[in-house]
Amino acid sequence: MDGYPCNNMKDYCYSGICESYDSQCESLFGKGAKKGPNVCFERANSKGDRFGNCGMKGSYFVRCSQANSLCGKIHCTSFKQENLPSELYFQTQDGISCVTTEFDLGSDIPDPALVNKGTSCAEGKACIDYTCVNASLLGYNCDIQKKCNGRAVCNNKGNCHCDPGWAPPFCHESGYGGSIDSGPTHIDTSLRDGLLIFFLLVLPILILLAIAFVKRKEIKRRLFRERRRHQRTENAQQRRPLPTNQNNNPREPNPQEEKNRRPPTSNSGIFTISHFPTSRPPVQNQFVPPQQRPPVRPPMSQRPPVRPPIPQYPPLRPPIPQHPPLRPPIPRNTPLRPPIPQKPVFSPPS
């Protein structure tokens, strides 16, 4: 807002810029340039020429009074030689060199070397139309302590822009800061977060529950089939007989067989012929294990129904003859029409 104190309450804002002599000197003569002493303003601007005036009236330059000398041509120091414009005016006051310049941009465009409007020329005063007047004339009418409770700054529309933690328009309640013009600095995303949770979490669960409710009968049928198949497998394993001998005892090793069993020789892989027959051990009655009985099949009522085999290839159609039968030939010399009978000739009686 125009007239709002800035730069540690030393200067004033105007048109969104914190106006000061130092910032204007840097824009004209480069970085590092600063405001010259007041005596440079008083002596140069009181001449009323190109390099010292308080504006123009018609085609003549206006001299500045001592009270308004700080609102005429600007005079700077601490400048660099390579950043100077072509039109310059130098003066030395109390051993300090001051410089100013002139820009001829036409009668309708103010000279950029004149002090900007809103620049503080004294305590509580600012430059307006080359005159040092009270800063209240800049239009600042927002009392931060009374209107904003000391918790905000005033924007260019005269409304409180509250600090973070306080709500507009008067910054006396807790909130997210901001103003009624620029809105709060915090964006409420509760609605968006709620919609995301509903569509990504709640809605899929509801869809799954609806599908399970619609197909509950089919799910129960499948579970019942799996349970019956498992019970049939367990019953078949329990009814299968275990292999036993005639005395229903496991077979014990025969010591005579172990004694007569010849150990393998080292040259068992080589075929040899003995010229002298060796005595063979007497043949003894060896125990023949009983044959195992095949497992008892369950009755027909408990067997699963056997489906008829499905033919792999569909039946073929009867072949279509390559040459269809020809029609019987029509005789060429046959009469097309039957002969017309001739009338009998009657002779008169004699």
Describe this entry's structure for a reader.
This protein is α+β, with helices and mostly antiparallel strands. Among the domains are: 4-137, YefM-like fold; 144-179. The chain has six helices and 16 strands. It has a three-stranded antiparallel β-sheet with strand order 1-2-3. A three-stranded antiparallel β-sheet has the order 10-11-12, with no helix packed on it. A two-stranded antiparallel sheet has the order 4-7. Strand 2 and strand 3 form a beta hairpin.
Summarize the helices and strands and which ones pair or pack.
Blueprint: E1 5-6, E2 11-14, E3 17-19, H1 21-29, E4 34-35, H2 38-45, E5 56-57, E6 60-61, E7 76-77, E8 88-93, E9 96-101, E10 120-122, E11 125-128, E12 131-134, H3 144-147, E13 152-154, E14 160-162, E15 166-167, E16 173-174, H4 190-214, H5 216-239, H6 255-260
Antiparallel strand pairs: 1-2, 2-3, 4-7, 5-6, 8-9, 10-11, 11-12, 13-14, 15-16
Quick overview of this protein structure:
The chain is α+β, with helices and mostly antiparallel strands.
Task: Describe this protein with a few key phrases.
single chain; 6 helices; 350 residues; 3-stranded antiparallel sheet; 16 strands; alpha+beta; YefM-like fold; elongated; 22% helix
| Average pLDDT, all residues | 77
Q: What does the radius of gyration come to?
A: 62 Å
* Main CATH class of the domain at 4-137: Alpha Beta
Give the end-to-end Cα distance, rounded to a whole number of Å.
163 Å
CATH architectural type of the domain at 4-137: 3-Layer(aba) Sandwich
Fold-level CATH name of the domain at 4-137: YefM-like fold
Strand-pairing-aware structural class = alpha+beta
For the largest sheet, list the strands in their spatial order. 1-2-3
Low-confidence stretches: 266-275
**Record field, number of beta strands:** 16
Please summarize the sheet with the most strands: 3 strands, antiparallel
Shape: elongated
Question: For this entry, what is the oligomeric state of its chains?
Answer: single chain
Please give the count of helices: 6
Order of helices and strands: EEEHEHEEEEEEEEHEEEEHHH
Strand content: 5-15%
The portion of residues assigned to helices is 10-25%
Biased composition (Low complexity): 281-290
Transmembrane segments: 194-214
Organism: Thamnophis sirtalis
Protein name: Disintegrin and metalloproteinase domain-containing protein 9-like
